[in-house]
Design a protein that fits this description.
The structure holds 2 protein chains of 2 kinds. Chain A is built from 19 helices and 14 strands. Chain A has a 4-stranded mixed sheet with strand order 6-5-7-14. By secondary structure, chain A is an alpha/beta fold. Chain B is elongated, with a radius of gyration of 33 Å. The longest helix of chain B has 16 residues. Chain B is α/β, with parallel strands linked by helices. Chain B has a domain of 66 residues. Chain B has a 3-stranded parallel sheet with strand order 2-1-3, covered by helices on one side. Chain B is built from 4 helices and 3 strands, in the order ααβαβαβ. Classes of the chains: A alpha/beta, B alpha/beta.
Chain lengths: 445, 139
């Protein structure tokens, strides 16, 4: 909203006041101004939560206090439009650059450095490996790229400028406990910042495909989603450090995830079990148009991770239970993560010759009520306005009674299947994780 | 219930949960660091921090002397997508009507959704000689 308010102010010279919930207003006034817009937008803060409140409460909020200034809300709005600009609000031009971070930290003991890293939020609060020059130099042997090469500049949340080098990523890789051979995967992860954040419990999932899986010993089999493999664990942890240190995610300053998500400790990092795919089922990266010999990484973003709990039963086909569980998801996209034994049953017994055939069936058969669909605020925020503007099928769905049944997964291409696991149980997860582009790991070797 | 039967019921073989005893693992190899007391040794670490770039400062538009006789647009970003914002903006409009009747207010709903821009609306407001904008509500 700061960008829109800034556009109205700057392009048209119209004074503007932005209203935001008290949960996020400090971001607009603080980090967003400092690192993103450079424009000190005048905000008023509405008590949170306002969504879901009856009209009487909303009226009381408007008649009550602005959470930013403590003044009556409407007086604060009038002031925002009429009160003369302060010296800060009149400032223009380039601000003094922030003090460049030195390449090296002052020498200190292990204990003090561990303490410093925690104080600076350079950790997931598990101990890190202190990145000595020797360790970072050894890590750099994992790539042919030069240490001072800029990986990306627009690395901050909302694309703010936080340029970082290959050596910076190698430093974080050391801290996470990586081996040099993991570095191309970790550089690929870093090249994809900023990762999506939200006040909701959003999270990421990392899927690796291609030859590098086996070259660096990633686990695509038994226990692949658990803490049972060095490469999976450490690469996943690296992503958390990249998010916090390179992207600059700082809870309460640049990010406001109310509960956050335990998946953010390790970001569900695993390799697809390509060797165990049934005949006709393609690996994820091949589905995306890449060669089987390409090593690729795909970052999914989502919220929900529903466990099949038990194994596939003869009296209820796996796709039927997947359909049932998926009815609780938003409908905006899904990823089914399944053991190879489930994929075999779907292929050999249920006749799904490809992943795409399974997705088409689920798209046709998952159902939920219109009330439940619009009850999800991510759906209503993203698609509700489009429905109000006439975009189908959302326009028709908005007019339905709450108990009317709809098929929310309108696009089968939004349903993905990833095969992983050790074939000790025919289990699976239904998730609403949606993929970004598959990107080349080979480019960072 | 017998533990073995319980595990079988869950589809778990006892061998899977037994694993190897931790004492059976290979003892760690001594490293040079391990021979020096870590608490005393000074270490020079590479700094993981990134230097953030700062955007150019942009001044705000000059403010209005008064709102009397002015037209203020109350722009609904449609955050939430189900009309919640409209209620808040309608309450603002009602407040202006009651307490500052000389102010004309117009409610507009932004196109797209809360994450998309609507430059056509900003131009429409400017072309209509809008004097001020209240934009909201994000949450």
């Amino acid at each position: 909203m700061s960008l829109e308010a800034g556009e109205i102010e700057q392009k048209y010279g119209i004074p503007t006041v932005a209203a935001a919930g008290s949960n996020v207003v400090s971001f607009g006034i603080g980090a967003n101004f400092t690192y993103n817009t450079g424009m000190p937008i005048r905000y008023v803060g509405v008590p949170f939560p306002f969504s879901g409140q009856p009209r009487s409460v909303l009226k009381a909020y408007i008649e009550g206090k602005d959470t930013v200034t403590g003044k009556p809300m409407m007086h604060a709005i009038v002031d925002g439009l009429t009160k003369s600009l302060t010296a800060e609000e009149k400032m223009s031009g380039t601000p003094p650059e922030s003090t460049p971070e030195p390449r090296l930290l002052p020498a200190d003991t292990e204990d003090n450095l561990q303490r410093l890293f925690k104080e600076k939020c350079w950790t997931d609060y598990n101990p890190v490996i202190i990145p000595t020059q020797e360790r970072v130099a050894a890590m750099m042997k994992g790539t042919s790229h030069k240490p001072d090469e800029i990986v990306k500049s627009a690395a901050g949340t909302f694309g703010t400028r936080r340029p970082f080098t290959v050596e910076k990523v190698a430093t974080l890789a050391v801290m996470a406990g990586a081996k040099p051979e993991y570095l191309p995967v970790i550089l690929t992860l870093a090249s994809q910042v900023p990762y999506q954040d939200s006040t909701t419990s959003i999270a990421q999932m990392v899927v690796v495909n291609g030859p590098i899986r086996n070259e660096i010993g990633m686990n695509a089999g038994l226990g692949a989603l658990g803490p049972n493999n060095d490469a999976n664990s450490v690469i996943g942890r690296s992503m958390t450090l990249i998010h916090k240190i390179i992207q600059g995610y700082d809870e309460g300053v640049t990010g406001f995830a109310s509960l956050s998500n335990p998946l953010r400790y390790d970001n569900l990092c695993f390799a697809e079990n390509e060797e165990a795919l049934p005949q006709g089922w393609q690996p994820l990266h091949v589905q995306a148009g890449h060669k089987p010999t390409d090593s690729m990484l795909t970052i999914f973003t989502g919220w929900n991770f529903i466990n099949s709990t038990g194994w596939v039963e003869q009296h209820y086909a796996p796709q039927m239970l997947m359909r049932d569980y998926m009815s609780t998801l938003s409908g905006m996209g899904a990823a089914l993560i399944m053991d190879p034994s489930v994929a075999e049953l779907l292929n050999n017994v249920q006749g799904f010759a490809t992943k795409e055939k399974l997705a088409e069936w689920l798209s046709r058969n998952v159902e939920k009520t219109a009330g439940s669909y619009w009850g999800n605020s991510i759906v209503s925020s993203m698609l509700g306005p489009l429905g109000a503007q006439g975009l189908e099928p959302y326009a028709s769905w908005k007019k339905l009674p709450g108990d009317a049944v709809i098929k929310p997964f309108t696009n089968p291409k939004g349903i993905h299947a990833v095969v992983v696991g050790g074939k000790t149980a025919s289990v699976w997860f239904a998730t609403d994780f949606m993929p970004g582009p598959s990107v080349s790991i080979d480019a960072w070797r | 219930m017998d533990r073995r039967k319980m595990l079988a019921l869950l589809g778990v073989g006892p061998a899977l949960v037994a694993g190897a005893p931790s004492y059976a693992r290979t003892a760690p190899t001594a490293t040079p660091e391990a021979t020096t007391p870590m608490t005393d040794r000074l270490i020079t670490a590479v700094n993981p921090a990134v230097t953030p770039g700062l955007p150019k400062r942009v001044p705000l538009a000059p403010r209005l002397d008064t709102l009397d006789g002015k037209t203020i647009y109350l722009v609904d970003t449609d955050w939430g997508g189900m009309g919640q914002n409209a209620s808040i903006l309608e309450e603002m409009q009602a407040w202006f009507a009651e307490h500052m009747p000389a102010v004309k207010t117009i409610i507009k709903v932004k196109k797209g959704n809360f994450v998309t821009d609507d430059p056509a609306l900003w131009k429409e407001i400017a072309d209509a000689k809008g004097d001020g904008v209240v934009l909201g509500v994000a949450g």
